[in-house]
Amino acid sequence: MNKWYLSILLWVHLTSHAAGAAAEKFIFYQPWLSHQQVSAATWNEMGQDLRAQGYTHVIFQWSQYGQNQFWGADKSSLLQRVVQTPGPKAIQYIFGLYLGEDYYAKLGQSDQALSQYLAQSRQFALQNARKIMQQSPRAVAGWYLPEEIDDLNWRTPARQKLLQAHFLALSKELKAIAPNTQIYASAFFGGHTPPADFAKQMNTLLRTTGMILLV
Fold first, then answer.
1. Dihedral, CA of residue 75, residue 81, residue 82 and residue 88, to nearest 10
2. Could you write out the DSSP letters of every residue in 171-215?
3. What are the pLDDT digits (tens) for 18-57?
4. CB neighbour burial string for 20-52, b if at least 16 within 10 angstroms, e if fewer
5. Which SS3 state, helix, strand or coil, does residue 116 take?
6. Model confidence, pTM
């Protein structure tokens, strides 16, 4: 693979197995405005390389980051050009939705202010999902919610209820848009919460929302 690709792809290797089924291999791609200059031929080459290495799914980190839209109103936006390339059809696309540039800073707000911020974020995310469903020439294999969950900012019962309500509301709306489409989110931990407590919180989130959590 061309070394230049390493400045584009955030490599996270995820593998899952189902009984009697072939392994699924996932990789993240984090879009940036500087990638707008990448040619269709290069995108196609990257897709061929990924397939040759056995990757089955690409997770786009986001389709909108702050004011930067990577799936815009016309067909020239970055992700629209990526999915229009004739790359291997065997690779499926999971579309990340909206993430505010100030998301991590906003975690320091009061619970009430954070709840209002997340409600606004949901509206942007749903706008992204509707546009992609209407315009994508390829099937949507899943949605990725880029608000990463840590074990520092969601420790209190009130914060955990807020997080659960946010993802549950968003999941319900996304299921209404695409009923059979899987929803993914990420969690990470830095030793701020006892592992058993964090695991309990994540299990509750899984049961209530039906999402798949990448930890």
1. 100
2. HHHHHHHSTT-EEEEEE---SSS-HHHHHHHHHHHHHHH-PEEE-
3. 444 468 899 999 999 999 888 888 888 888 899 899 999 9
4. eeeeebbbbbbbeeebeebeeebbebbbeebee
5. helix
6. 0.89
